[in-house]
Design goal:
rod-shaped
Length: 138
């Protein structure tokens, strides 16, 4: 991108703009670092959640199969209670998956991409300002 740095007429003004741009860059890099950590956590969570959901689904299917053939009595009532517990567990896992799963991972990766582009734009801005500073100092 081209910047209108030729409108800057003093070294002091240029130095102030460079200082502000460097602060912005530092802030963006900190934000990017946090997002990288979050992305890594989301990636780990996605794998773990997928495994937990598969396991809970398998256990629920086994429990449902038992309930279907079990005679009335304590064992069947215990299985029904376990079924409800597993259904609640699956609901919670699926909610966590939507909050920290594959979709959240993709959104975080998109945010990271945007942050990288912002840092690149700020770097270009700083370079343009430094070039203008050199021109003004000459």
């Amino acid at each position: 991108m081209e910047f209108s740095v030729n409108n800057i007429s003093s070294v002091v003004e240029c130095n102030n703009l460079i200082a502000n741009a460097n602060e912005t860059r530092t802030s963006l890099i900190a934000k990017q670092t946090v997002m990288n950590i979050q992305r890594d956590g989301y990636a780990d969570d996605t794998t773990e959640l997928q495994e937990d959901i598969a396991s809970a689904n398998a256990e629920l299917q086994t429990t449902n199969d038992f309930i279907a053939i079990a005679p009335e009595g304590k064992a069947k009532l215990d299985a029904i209670e376990k079924q409800k517990s597993l259904e609640l567990k699956l609901m919670k896992l699926n909610r966590r998956m939507s909050e920290r799963g594959a979709t959240a991972l993709l959104e975080k990766e998109s945010d990271l991409n945007s942050a990288e582009k912002q840092i690149q734009a700020v770097d270009e801005y700083i370079t343009a300002l430094q070039t203008r500073l050199t021109q003004l100092a000459a």
